[in-house]
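Sequence of Cytochrome P450 (Artemisia annua).
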Amino acid sequence: MIEHSVVLIGLYRFADYMPCLSWVDKLRGVEGRIDHHVKQFDEFIEGVIEENLHKKREAAKGESYVVDQDQRFIDMLLEEKEDSTRSYHFQRDDIKALLVDMFVGGTVQPFSTIEWA
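Predicted 3D structure, token representation.
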């Protein structure tokens, strides 16, 4: 998934330089590939959140719940989402955006470095 992200990031898109030529990107299939990849990434992140929520529900039933560092971060974000005392309320999309930023930011740079080495 990350390798495909790096390829998509590196694609030449006409719309980046001349927005009036965005139709060329659609014709080349660039927009469709990006949309498909974004959907896959969204499903992956949604699965991570759902897995965390499932484990919390199981723990509430009395089953063992082993928390790793990633889950603690997701737990914290979900708690912030439920906190009604804040002036800004996290939405699920906000949480997914933060997780995507962390996931991509932590993997794309090392991947690019290895690729260029």
